[in-house]
User: Fold Glycosyltransferase subfamily 4-like N-terminal domain-containing protein from Nibricoccus aquaticus.
Amino acid sequence: MRALIYHLPLGEMDGTSVVLRRIYAQEAAHVRQLYFRTGRFPVPPTFPVEYARGDSNWPWARGARFVQRGWRKVVLPGLLRRSPWIAQTQKAVAENTITSLHVVVYDEPTAEFARRALDTGNLKRFTLHLMDLLLDNDELSPSATPHLCWLLSRAQSLVVVSNRLHDLIRPFTTADTLIWPIPAGFSPLDRQPPADNPAPWQVLISGAMYAGKTGFLEHIFLPAWKQFQQTHPHTELVYMGKDLDGIPPSVRACLRPLGVVPQEKLVETLRAASVALLPVLHEASTPWRYSVPARISDYLAAGLPVIAPHTEGTATHDFLLQVGSPAASLVAQQEDVLATLTRLHDAPGHWLTASHAATAFARQHLDLEKLRAQLFAFMA
Assistant:
């Protein structure tokens, strides 16, 4: 039996948790799932797990908005050191029924938590999985990140989300490495040609906003969107997710909130849109430069052409270059945004070509069943 070890942040909707639920949805009987979680959130009924609740039930720790740097550098390490979860997990990992371990981390504090669970004197074979990596002070080294380097040096195999991340960790490991993109949550299905539709032509925004990172949305996209709507009034901007307060007020006034959409209505909601927008600009100098948002895979599988800010030097930029035009459009100026929106709206044939290119990429590279089989074969 394999054990899956990871940290579940505040809430069940973060990208890592969603992806793990997708991967292990059919494997519950064969995998012992152990995670450290914080806050007072219900355990998803479709994702049976064992867990130990941390001691972060202070009111400020349960807020939807959270200062990530303070969380990762101060709060989480303290919780991990005091948590009874460590001893419980060490005991579970030591059982003879556990033959291999799938360990998911994304920064130094979560690496510390995984190391404490694994470092029992009888270290078993484990695969280290990095779907993301957040580094403070832009440094991966034995002095700055001792727990990450410990895991990297002892993992029998590594799974990473991008070549950019692989290049970063290569000096610290000799393990076999699999470049494994985040899978879509449903089977890609080609869209039909646009027909006369009484509903507005939608541009969709979804997911987390990041404080200080919405300049593209407010200062580049919004002026272009207002100009576009002057000549295309039967259009609307919609937001799906729980971080509406993170959207600048000037943008919030121009969109219709959809709220948090349940999983069973996700595909329907995505396919009601015509275009997806990535609103957050993470420059190459930020800790998020190795991230590839899970939502992109779902956009492509739903046949949504993606518009995103030009952010050279990041894993998201690299991934969208791989997706290529016309399924993905990287824009840097208001004029680029306006031209892209206008062409997708005014030329139905171009939109259909872009939509089919998106689903073709998802079918070839992001299919859940293919990627699940590839991951389990690699970890075997």
Q: What stands out?
A: Residues 348-365 form the longest helix (18 residues). Confidence is low (pLDDT under 50) at residues 38-77.
